């Protein structure tokens, strides 16, 4: 079991991400929180074998509004159960925008949350692999705080394997939806240490 905390990047220093992760064989369960100036979010995640997402639950609370999302992956695709209450919240209704577009996705990806990078990193052994070609992924990406779920095309690529001297591995991550490429440092368990422009490890649990 791991307890890990990250802080936001230089342009988002007030945001704090915290998570507890439990790894059992090739399965992961985790829960965590995200605290930002305009909202607080809580989430829980469970995967099946090979770190394939089975269920994600997220709730977000702001001033005068709240949203909830249960995102479930079945053998034939994803289902979402969502609700929103109050006024003054983010634009867009929570839930799946286009279920067919994410049908092939194996993973969820919570915006701003470093934990959901762990599943594809472990599945492809990117912590220990030598430099290799990019591996394409389709993600069911969850926007925070709106909790809209959309398709996100991403690439993961081994750059440098873990070594005790360095204390980390390096994985190149690219998001087509955000036009972003960055080199993530991850620990021996595949958990992000530093994610450029997003989050940086504050504790080493």
Quick overview of this protein structure:
The protein is an all-beta fold and 205 residues long.
Q: Secondary-structure element sequence?
A: EEEEEEEEEHEEEEEE
* Poorly predicted parts: none
The total beta strand count reads: 15
Going by helix content, strand content and strand pairing, the class is mainly beta
Share of helix among residues? Answer: under 10%
Question: In total, how many domains does the architecture comprise?
Answer: 1
What does this structure look like?
The chain is mainly beta. 3% of the residues lie in helices and 57% in strands. It has one domain (2-201). It has 1 helix and 15 strands. Strand 9, helix 1 (118-123) and strand 10 (135-142) form a beta-alpha-beta unit. The longest helix has 6 residues, at 118-123. The chain starts with a strand and ends with a strand. The model has no long low-confidence stretch (mean pLDDT 95).
Secondary-structure blueprint of this entry?
Layout: E1 2-8, E2 16-24, E3 27-36, E4 39-47, E5 53-62, E6 65-74, E7 77-86, E8 95-96, E9 107-110, H1 118-123, E10 135-142, E11 148-163, E12 168-175, E13 180-186, E14 192-195, E15 199-201
Parallel strand pairs: 8-11, 9-10
Antiparallel strand pairs: 1-2, 1-15, 2-3, 3-4, 4-5, 5-6, 6-7, 10-11, 11-12, 12-13, 13-14, 14-15
Q: Which features would summarize this protein structure in a list?
A:
about 200 residues; about 55% strand; globular; mainly beta; 1 helix
């Amino acid at each position: 079991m791991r307890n890990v905390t990250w802080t936001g990047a230089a342009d988002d220093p007030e945001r704090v991400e915290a998570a507890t992760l439990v790894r059992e064989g090739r399965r992961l369960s985790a829960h965590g929180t995200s605290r930002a100036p305009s909202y607080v979010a809580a989430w829980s995640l469970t995967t099946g074998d090979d770190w394939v997402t089975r269920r994600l639950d997220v709730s977000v609370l702001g001033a005068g509004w709240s949203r909830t999302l249960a995102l479930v992956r079945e053998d034939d695709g994803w289902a979402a159960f969502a609700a929103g209450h109050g006024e003054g919240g983010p634009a867009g209704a929570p839930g799946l925008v286009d279920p067919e577009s994410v049908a092939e996705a194996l993973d969820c990806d919570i915006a701003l949350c470093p934990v959901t990078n762990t599943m594809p990193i472990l599945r492809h052994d990117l912590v220990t692999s030598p430099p290799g070609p990019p591996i394409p992924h389709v993600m069911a990406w969850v926007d925070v705080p709106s909790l809209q779920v959309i398709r996100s095309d991403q690439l993961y690529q081994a750059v440098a394997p873990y070594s005790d001297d360095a204390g980390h591995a390096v994985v190149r991550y690219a998001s087509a939806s955000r036009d972003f490429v960055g080199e993530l440092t991850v620990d021996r368990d595949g958990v992000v240490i530093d994610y450029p422009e997003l989050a940086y490890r504050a504790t080493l649990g």
